Fold:
Amino acid sequence: MRGAAICLGVGAIWQIGLVLLVLLGACKGTGSEKTTPTKPIETDPLSPTALMRDVERLCGDAFAGRGSYQAGSKRASDFVFAEFQRLGYEVLRQPVRGRHAENIIAIKRSGEEAVVVSAHHDHLGVRNGELYRGADDNASGLAVLLGIARSRATHKYKHTVLFISFGAEEDGLVGSGVYIHDPIWPLTKTRAVINFDMVGRNFFEAGADQAEAAAIVGLEFDEALAAVAERAAAEVGLHLILVPARLLELFTLHDRTDDWWFRRQGIGAIHFSTGLHKDYHQVTDTPNKIRPNQLARVAHTAAALLDSLANSRHKSHASRSK
Ligand SMILES: [Zn+2]
Structure:
Protein backbone atom coordinates (compact mmCIF):
# COMPACT_ATOMS: atom_id res chain seq x y z
CA MET A 1 0.00 0.00 0.00
CA ARG A 2 1.28 3.44 -0.86
CA GLY A 3 1.66 6.08 1.85
CA ALA A 4 -0.94 8.80 2.25
CA ALA A 5 -0.43 11.93 0.12
CA ILE A 6 -1.28 14.05 3.11
CA CYS A 7 0.82 12.60 5.85
CA LEU A 8 -1.55 10.59 7.97
CA GLY A 9 0.07 9.53 11.23
CA VAL A 10 0.16 5.84 12.04
CA GLY A 11 -1.85 6.59 15.20
CA ALA A 12 -4.57 8.19 13.10
CA ILE A 13 -4.56 5.18 10.80
CA TRP A 14 -5.21 2.89 13.78
CA GLN A 15 -8.10 5.03 14.88
CA ILE A 16 -9.57 4.93 11.39
CA GLY A 17 -9.13 1.17 11.39
CA LEU A 18 -10.89 0.87 14.70
CA VAL A 19 -13.75 3.11 13.58
CA LEU A 20 -14.05 0.94 10.48
CA LEU A 21 -14.22 -2.16 12.60
CA VAL A 22 -16.85 -0.72 14.89
CA LEU A 23 -18.92 0.37 11.88
CA LEU A 24 -18.62 -3.10 10.47
CA GLY A 25 -19.40 -4.79 13.76
CA ALA A 26 -16.31 -6.88 13.33
CA CYS A 27 -14.67 -6.51 16.72
CA LYS A 28 -14.94 -10.05 17.92
CA GLY A 29 -11.33 -11.05 17.63
CA THR A 30 -9.77 -14.03 19.26
CA GLY A 31 -6.16 -12.95 18.78
CA SER A 32 -4.98 -16.51 18.72
CA GLU A 33 -4.21 -18.58 15.64
CA LYS A 34 -6.02 -21.90 15.45
CA THR A 35 -3.89 -24.47 13.72
CA THR A 36 -6.66 -26.52 12.11
CA PRO A 37 -8.93 -24.84 9.57
CA THR A 38 -12.38 -26.42 9.07
CA LYS A 39 -11.10 -28.14 5.93
CA PRO A 40 -7.43 -28.79 5.14
CA ILE A 41 -6.06 -26.01 2.94
CA GLU A 42 -5.19 -27.47 -0.44
CA THR A 43 -1.63 -28.51 -1.01
CA ASP A 44 0.69 -26.98 -3.62
CA PRO A 45 0.89 -24.25 -4.85
CA LEU A 46 -1.61 -22.50 -2.58
CA SER A 47 -0.35 -24.24 0.57
CA PRO A 48 0.91 -22.06 3.42
CA THR A 49 4.41 -23.48 2.94
CA ALA A 50 4.55 -22.79 -0.79
CA LEU A 51 3.24 -19.23 -0.40
CA MET A 52 5.58 -18.51 2.50
CA ARG A 53 8.55 -19.68 0.46
CA ASP A 54 7.92 -16.82 -1.99
CA VAL A 55 7.51 -14.26 0.80
CA GLU A 56 10.89 -15.27 2.23
CA ARG A 57 12.52 -15.27 -1.17
CA LEU A 58 11.19 -11.81 -2.08
CA CYS A 59 12.35 -10.43 1.27
CA GLY A 60 15.84 -11.89 0.87
CA ASP A 61 18.95 -9.73 0.62
CA ALA A 62 19.12 -10.35 -3.15
CA PHE A 63 16.01 -8.20 -3.71
CA ALA A 64 17.19 -5.42 -1.35
CA GLY A 65 13.66 -4.44 -0.32
CA ARG A 66 12.50 -4.01 -3.95
CA GLY A 67 12.76 -0.19 -3.83
CA SER A 68 10.48 1.29 -6.51
CA TYR A 69 13.31 2.74 -8.65
CA GLN A 70 16.15 0.65 -7.23
CA ALA A 71 17.85 -2.36 -8.79
CA GLY A 72 16.09 -4.67 -6.29
CA SER A 73 12.67 -4.03 -7.81
CA LYS A 74 14.05 -4.89 -11.27
CA ARG A 75 15.35 -8.17 -9.83
CA ALA A 76 11.87 -8.81 -8.41
CA SER A 77 10.14 -8.05 -11.73
CA ASP A 78 12.69 -10.24 -13.56
CA PHE A 79 11.87 -13.04 -11.11
CA VAL A 80 8.12 -12.66 -11.74
CA PHE A 81 8.71 -12.55 -15.52
CA ALA A 82 10.73 -15.79 -15.38
CA GLU A 83 8.08 -17.51 -13.21
CA PHE A 84 5.24 -16.56 -15.56
CA GLN A 85 7.29 -17.76 -18.54
CA ARG A 86 8.14 -21.04 -16.82
CA LEU A 87 4.42 -21.60 -16.29
CA GLY A 88 3.83 -21.28 -20.02
CA TYR A 89 2.06 -17.91 -20.08
CA GLU A 90 2.56 -15.31 -22.78
CA VAL A 91 4.44 -12.58 -20.83
CA LEU A 92 4.96 -8.86 -21.50
CA ARG A 93 7.05 -6.20 -19.86
CA GLN A 94 5.44 -2.77 -19.70
CA PRO A 95 7.94 0.02 -18.97
CA VAL A 96 7.04 2.45 -16.20
CA ARG A 97 8.70 5.85 -16.07
CA GLY A 98 11.80 5.91 -13.89
CA ARG A 99 14.72 3.53 -13.52
CA HIS A 100 14.16 -0.16 -12.83
CA ALA A 101 10.37 0.16 -12.82
CA GLU A 102 8.08 -1.98 -14.97
CA ASN A 103 4.83 -3.92 -14.93
CA ILE A 104 4.95 -7.63 -15.74
CA ILE A 105 1.84 -9.00 -17.45
CA ALA A 106 1.03 -12.69 -18.00
CA ILE A 107 -1.75 -13.45 -20.45
CA LYS A 108 -3.93 -16.53 -20.51
CA ARG A 109 -5.94 -16.02 -23.69
CA SER A 110 -9.48 -17.24 -24.07
CA GLY A 111 -12.57 -15.10 -24.70
CA GLU A 112 -12.86 -11.44 -25.66
CA GLU A 113 -13.33 -10.27 -22.10
CA ALA A 114 -10.60 -10.40 -19.47
CA VAL A 115 -10.31 -10.69 -15.69
CA VAL A 116 -7.26 -9.03 -14.09
CA VAL A 117 -5.52 -10.46 -11.02
CA SER A 118 -2.89 -8.10 -9.59
CA ALA A 119 -0.43 -7.17 -6.86
CA HIS A 120 2.49 -4.74 -6.71
CA HIS A 121 6.03 -6.07 -6.40
CA ASP A 122 7.89 -2.90 -5.31
CA HIS A 123 8.44 -1.62 -1.78
CA LEU A 124 10.69 0.98 -0.13
CA GLY A 125 14.09 -0.68 -0.67
CA VAL A 126 17.12 0.83 1.02
CA ARG A 127 16.64 4.27 2.60
CA ASN A 128 19.23 6.05 4.72
CA GLY A 129 21.21 2.83 4.88
CA GLU A 130 18.27 0.83 6.26
CA LEU A 131 16.66 -2.12 4.49
CA TYR A 132 12.86 -2.16 4.27
CA ARG A 133 12.00 -5.74 3.36
CA GLY A 134 8.24 -5.25 2.92
CA ALA A 135 7.12 -8.74 3.88
CA ASP A 136 3.46 -7.84 4.24
CA ASP A 137 3.70 -4.82 1.88
CA ASN A 138 3.67 -6.48 -0.55
CA ALA A 139 5.66 -9.71 -0.75
CA SER A 140 2.51 -11.27 0.75
CA GLY A 141 0.26 -10.07 -2.10
CA LEU A 142 2.78 -11.00 -4.77
CA ALA A 143 3.17 -14.50 -3.26
CA VAL A 144 -0.61 -14.96 -3.47
CA LEU A 145 -0.65 -13.69 -7.07
CA LEU A 146 2.15 -16.11 -8.05
CA GLY A 147 0.48 -18.99 -6.19
CA ILE A 148 -2.78 -18.46 -8.08
CA ALA A 149 -0.92 -18.12 -11.40
CA ARG A 150 0.80 -21.46 -10.69
CA SER A 151 -2.37 -23.22 -9.58
CA ARG A 152 -4.35 -22.02 -12.63
CA ALA A 153 -1.64 -22.47 -15.30
CA THR A 154 -3.45 -25.35 -17.02
CA HIS A 155 -7.05 -24.31 -16.28
CA LYS A 156 -9.41 -23.73 -19.18
CA TYR A 157 -11.46 -20.57 -18.75
CA LYS A 158 -14.22 -19.02 -20.83
CA HIS A 159 -12.67 -15.56 -20.45
CA THR A 160 -9.09 -14.31 -20.77
CA VAL A 161 -7.10 -13.84 -17.55
CA LEU A 162 -4.31 -11.29 -17.03
CA PHE A 163 -1.93 -11.66 -14.09
CA ILE A 164 -0.27 -8.28 -13.50
CA SER A 165 2.61 -7.51 -11.16
CA PHE A 166 2.71 -3.70 -10.87
CA GLY A 167 5.85 -1.60 -10.32
CA ALA A 168 6.29 1.80 -8.62
CA GLU A 169 3.13 1.46 -6.54
CA GLU A 170 4.79 3.03 -3.52
CA ASP A 171 5.51 6.19 -5.53
CA GLY A 172 1.78 6.87 -5.98
CA LEU A 173 0.26 3.92 -7.91
CA VAL A 174 2.51 4.78 -10.87
CA GLY A 175 2.70 1.34 -12.55
CA SER A 176 -1.06 0.73 -12.41
CA GLY A 177 -1.62 4.29 -13.69
CA VAL A 178 0.62 3.53 -16.68
CA TYR A 179 -1.39 0.36 -17.33
CA ILE A 180 -4.74 2.21 -17.16
CA HIS A 181 -3.53 4.81 -19.67
CA ASP A 182 -2.03 2.18 -21.97
CA PRO A 183 -3.91 -1.07 -21.28
CA ILE A 184 -2.93 -4.20 -23.15
CA TRP A 185 -6.57 -5.36 -23.02
CA PRO A 186 -9.42 -2.90 -23.71
CA LEU A 187 -10.76 -1.53 -20.44
CA THR A 188 -14.30 -1.79 -21.84
CA LYS A 189 -13.70 -5.54 -22.12
CA THR A 190 -12.16 -5.92 -18.68
CA ARG A 191 -14.70 -7.67 -16.47
CA ALA A 192 -13.10 -7.04 -13.08
CA VAL A 193 -9.85 -6.77 -11.15
CA ILE A 194 -8.89 -8.77 -8.05
CA ASN A 195 -6.01 -7.01 -6.26
CA PHE A 196 -3.89 -8.06 -3.26
CA ASP A 197 -2.07 -5.56 -1.06
CA MET A 198 -0.93 -6.59 2.42
CA VAL A 199 -2.61 -9.95 3.00
CA GLY A 200 -0.29 -11.79 5.39
CA ARG A 201 -1.12 -10.65 8.91
CA ASN A 202 -3.92 -11.03 11.41
CA PHE A 203 -6.78 -8.69 10.56
CA PHE A 204 -6.05 -5.22 12.02
CA GLU A 205 -3.48 -6.38 14.53
CA ALA A 206 -3.46 -3.14 16.49
CA GLY A 207 -7.23 -3.25 16.85
CA ALA A 208 -9.39 -6.32 16.51
CA ASP A 209 -6.38 -8.61 15.93
CA GLN A 210 -8.47 -11.36 14.37
CA ALA A 211 -6.41 -14.40 13.45
CA GLU A 212 -8.66 -15.84 10.79
CA ALA A 213 -10.21 -12.80 9.12
CA ALA A 214 -9.50 -10.61 6.11
CA ALA A 215 -11.17 -7.62 4.50
CA ILE A 216 -12.59 -7.84 1.02
CA VAL A 217 -13.43 -4.49 -0.51
CA GLY A 218 -15.84 -4.04 -3.40
CA LEU A 219 -18.41 -6.82 -3.24
CA GLU A 220 -21.21 -4.72 -1.76
CA PHE A 221 -23.18 -4.64 -5.02
CA ASP A 222 -22.66 -8.22 -6.11
CA GLU A 223 -24.54 -10.67 -3.92
CA ALA A 224 -23.79 -13.63 -6.17
CA LEU A 225 -20.04 -13.02 -6.16
CA ALA A 226 -20.06 -12.26 -2.44
CA ALA A 227 -21.73 -15.64 -1.90
CA VAL A 228 -18.98 -17.35 -3.96
CA ALA A 229 -16.32 -15.60 -1.85
CA GLU A 230 -18.02 -16.45 1.44
CA ARG A 231 -18.43 -20.10 0.50
CA ALA A 232 -14.76 -20.41 -0.47
CA ALA A 233 -13.69 -18.55 2.66
CA ALA A 234 -15.77 -20.85 4.87
CA GLU A 235 -13.99 -23.89 3.40
CA VAL A 236 -10.69 -22.63 4.82
CA GLY A 237 -12.05 -21.10 8.02
CA LEU A 238 -11.67 -17.47 6.88
CA HIS A 239 -14.04 -14.84 8.22
CA LEU A 240 -14.49 -12.38 5.36
CA ILE A 241 -15.23 -8.80 6.36
CA LEU A 242 -17.07 -7.16 3.47
CA VAL A 243 -16.00 -3.52 3.26
CA PRO A 244 -17.89 -1.22 0.86
CA ALA A 245 -15.49 0.83 -1.28
CA ARG A 246 -17.46 3.98 -0.38
CA LEU A 247 -16.62 3.44 3.28
CA LEU A 248 -12.90 3.72 2.47
CA GLU A 249 -13.61 7.01 0.71
CA LEU A 250 -14.91 8.42 3.97
CA PHE A 251 -11.47 7.88 5.48
CA THR A 252 -9.50 8.79 2.32
CA LEU A 253 -8.16 5.24 2.22
CA HIS A 254 -9.80 4.47 -1.14
CA ASP A 255 -7.00 5.69 -3.45
CA ARG A 256 -4.04 3.98 -1.83
CA THR A 257 -4.03 0.68 -3.71
CA ASP A 258 -3.76 -0.18 -7.42
CA ASP A 259 -7.40 -1.30 -7.79
CA TRP A 260 -8.45 2.36 -7.37
CA TRP A 261 -7.51 3.18 -10.99
CA PHE A 262 -9.76 0.38 -12.26
CA ARG A 263 -12.72 1.33 -10.04
CA ARG A 264 -12.35 4.91 -11.24
CA GLN A 265 -12.64 3.71 -14.85
CA GLY A 266 -15.92 1.99 -14.07
CA ILE A 267 -14.40 -1.49 -13.85
CA GLY A 268 -15.53 -3.80 -11.04
CA ALA A 269 -12.72 -3.76 -8.48
CA ILE A 270 -12.17 -6.21 -5.63
CA HIS A 271 -9.39 -5.79 -3.10
CA PHE A 272 -8.11 -8.18 -0.42
CA SER A 273 -6.24 -6.94 2.66
CA THR A 274 -5.56 -7.97 6.22
CA GLY A 275 -5.17 -4.29 7.13
CA LEU A 276 -2.66 -1.91 8.62
CA HIS A 277 -0.35 -2.68 11.56
CA LYS A 278 2.48 -1.09 13.49
CA ASP A 279 5.12 -2.50 11.10
CA TYR A 280 3.55 -0.77 8.05
CA HIS A 281 6.36 1.01 6.13
CA GLN A 282 8.83 0.16 8.91
CA VAL A 283 12.02 -1.92 8.76
CA THR A 284 10.19 -4.33 11.07
CA ASP A 285 7.84 -5.52 8.28
CA THR A 286 9.68 -8.84 8.11
CA PRO A 287 8.75 -12.42 7.09
CA ASN A 288 8.74 -13.77 10.66
CA LYS A 289 5.58 -11.67 11.30
CA ILE A 290 3.69 -13.21 8.37
CA ARG A 291 1.00 -15.81 9.06
CA PRO A 292 1.36 -18.46 6.34
CA ASN A 293 -2.20 -19.71 6.96
CA GLN A 294 -3.59 -16.24 6.26
CA LEU A 295 -1.81 -16.22 2.89
CA ALA A 296 -3.36 -19.58 2.06
CA ARG A 297 -6.85 -18.57 3.22
CA VAL A 298 -6.80 -15.45 1.06
CA ALA A 299 -5.31 -17.31 -1.92
CA HIS A 300 -7.93 -20.07 -1.76
CA THR A 301 -10.79 -17.55 -1.53
CA ALA A 302 -9.45 -15.34 -4.32
CA ALA A 303 -8.81 -18.31 -6.62
CA ALA A 304 -12.47 -19.32 -6.25
CA LEU A 305 -13.51 -15.76 -7.14
CA LEU A 306 -11.26 -15.83 -10.20
CA ASP A 307 -12.74 -19.19 -11.30
CA SER A 308 -16.22 -17.74 -11.01
CA LEU A 309 -15.43 -14.44 -12.79
CA ALA A 310 -13.44 -16.13 -15.57
CA ASN A 311 -16.08 -18.75 -16.29
CA SER A 312 -19.46 -17.15 -15.80
CA ARG A 313 -21.56 -15.07 -18.15
CA HIS A 314 -22.62 -13.13 -15.09
CA LYS A 315 -21.27 -9.58 -15.43
CA SER A 316 -19.51 -8.53 -12.26
CA HIS A 317 -21.19 -5.89 -10.14
CA ALA A 318 -18.11 -5.42 -8.01
CA SER A 319 -17.72 -1.80 -6.92
CA ARG A 320 -17.12 0.79 -9.60
CA SER A 321 -17.23 4.54 -9.58
CA LYS A 322 -19.34 5.06 -12.71
ZN1 LIG B 1 3.38 0.34 0.90
Summary: Residues 1-2, 137, 170, 281 surround zinc ion (CB under 6 Å). The domain at 10-311 is CATH 3.40.630.10 (Aminopeptidase). The two ends are 24 Å apart (CA to CA). The chain has one domain: 10-311.
